[in-house]
Amino acid sequence: MINNISNNEQENLALQTTHVQKTIMSKNLSKLRNVFAVGGVFIATSFLASHVNALEIAGNFHKGQESTSKGYSFALADTFTKGSNLYWTVAYSSLDDVKVEWNNDELFFKIDTIDALLSYRHKIQSYNSFFKNLTIEYQVGASAALTENKFTWPETPGLEEEVRYFSEKSDINAVIGVGAYYKLDRNTSINFGVKYQPSFSEFGAVTSAYIGLSYRFGRGLDY
What we know:
By secondary structure, the chain is of the alpha+beta class. 19% of the residues lie in helices and 49% in strands. A hairpin with a 4-residue loop joins strand 8 and strand 9. The radius of gyration is 23 Å and the shape is elongated.
């Protein structure tokens, strides 16, 4: 039977085998790279968390760029040194109905991430009763994906790729943001702002606006 296979069929079989091997190797290398990246994020955040000055917790509601897209986040933050304007933040974020356009269609997925951020906060200097309680924050960092989002075709003979991945667990993507804190009392503030991921895996840009509350333990809010 094997001897009856034409040269063209043998070449096609060899090409398909090579393609499969390359795909498997590429995915394995990608997963290994992501594992090291995620490990680096958690080592860094663990180091930062061990240098606590006055821990701050925050909970936020998010509204995504799509009409049905919404979610939430929880964050821990603190300064690097007492009295510093530089902060580290570790956050868990979840956003539903994030759109990806593919094959002339729109697909919607849920995205969960762990974010590690560095930020600079600067207090507005003003005699105005509103602005004197306002602090602006600029953030930059990276997020590690916790969810796998894929589209699976029905089993089709001769189809080389039956699954299309739009994001995989441990994918690392950049995050930037700008926010503000309005102090309500010595330890509590309203926080609001925008989180922007310029290129989240295969989704493209992902943006959400948020609002919530933050509370600082220990000494009061000094920003």
